[in-house]
């Protein structure tokens, strides 16, 4: 029964991760509270699901034609992936030597800030900007590098922060921001899985089961998001729900 709940939870997490973010709040809770894995093993095991989700979401977006972008946009997408991945390598290293508790304490309060940002002027999330400006390197490099550090360290909430940066600062349309998020997460999670595996911090049977679930949820949600005309609105609403749920869990559960 526990493994069935884990599979269903993984499918839901895959859908949440693809359309908004913070699906790891579901999977980490299952791994630690339901299945009783130690925090560091849960962190490592969770990366298998994140990798499967990122790969499946990328495939779903690709098959729906969301990778058809201009040459300059491909160059910028590649830059985001590379910089964020470099930051993630540092974050992965920190996750192996520092307790998660300090970062989780900061994460709780960042969620409140994020909820305010998301609710103020919602049109910024729903209207695709015309003539989107390119961020200057002095701003984009530290932003993407910091996102990578956070994602490499704990992963939980990475999608929420990534979308906020890509939509509100870099001015991407929310579904295209999700496309880039899938690529970024897949790239650095490959490295994370290799490192956690090397350190013996992955429970492979459980991890592969949840990876299968997240691949199913990620692929189906990506196909829906890429083709549905109101997908951006649904992504925005889901983002609000996810942040509120994470705040309730962080402060009251």
Automatic annotation (TrEMBL):
Coiled-coil annotated spans: none
**Topology of the protein relative to the lipid bilayer:** Multi-pass membrane protein
Quote the protein name from its UniProt record: Probable membrane transporter protein
Q: One Pfam family, short name please?
A: TauE
Instruction: Name the keywords, alphabetized.
Output: Cell membrane, Membrane, Transmembrane, Transmembrane helix, Transport
Task: List membrane-spanning regions.
Answer: 80-98, 105-121, 141-167, 179-198, 204-222, 234-252
Cellular component, GO, one term: plasma membrane
Q: Which domain of life is it from?
A: Bacteria
Q: Which InterPro entries match?
A: TM_pro_TauE-like, TSUP
């Amino acid at each position: 029964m526990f493994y069935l709940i884990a599979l269903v939870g993984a499918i839901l997490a895959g859908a949440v991760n693809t359309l908004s973010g913070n699906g790891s709040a579901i999977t980490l809770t299952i791994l630690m509270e339901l299945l009783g894995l130690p925090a560091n093993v849960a962190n490592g095991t969770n990366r298998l699901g994140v990798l499967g989700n990122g790969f499946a979401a990328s495939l779903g977006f690709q098959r729906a034609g969301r990778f058809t972008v201009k040459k300059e946009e491909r160059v910028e997408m590649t830059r985001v992936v590379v910089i964020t991945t470099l930051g993630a390598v540092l974050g992965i290293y920190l996750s192996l030597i520092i307790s998660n508790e300090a970062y989780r304490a900061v994460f709780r309060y960042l969620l409140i800030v994020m909820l305010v940002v998301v609710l103020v002027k919602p049109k910024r999330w729903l209207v695709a900007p015309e003539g989107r400006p390119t961020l200057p390197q002095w701003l984009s490099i530290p932003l993407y590098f910091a996102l990578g550090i956070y994602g490499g360290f704990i992963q939980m909430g990475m999608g929420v922060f990534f979308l906020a940066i890509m939509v509100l600062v870099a001015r991407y349309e929310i579904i295209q921001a999700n496309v880039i998020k899938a690529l970024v997460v897949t790239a650095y999670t490959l490295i994370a899985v290799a490192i956690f595996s090397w350190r013996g911090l992955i429970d492979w049977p459980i991890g592969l089961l949840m990876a299968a679930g997240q691949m199913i949820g990620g692929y189906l949600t990506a196909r829906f998001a890429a083709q549905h005309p109101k997908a951006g609105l649904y992504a925005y609403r889901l983002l609000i729900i996810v942040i509120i749920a994470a705040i309730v869990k962080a402060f009251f559960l």
